[in-house]
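Per reviewer request, we include the raw input and output of the structure prediction for the construct analysed in the revised manuscript.
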Amino acid sequence: MEVTVYILRCSDGSYYTGLTKQEIEARVWEHNAGIYDGYTAKRRPVELVFTETYDRIIDAIARERQIKGWSRRKKEALIAMDYEALPALSKRGPVEAE
């Protein structure tokens, strides 16, 4: 079973992170159709800006939680696939040599 972790950019510029076992296009359609009354319902339309696929749901859940805890700047670095910038954007920041 494949599970997709995804990030949507909402019409107000905010980001929504979620996961799904269904095809990602179908899930994005549900968000844009307002099928569920949740965060994105009043922030439509939404745009898919990032996906990662996992074989195990436990890994996808852990990744979704991790991303949800990130700052906006860190999410934007992930969306841009700027993986080298991610450590410097952590809440505590990098440990600098004295």
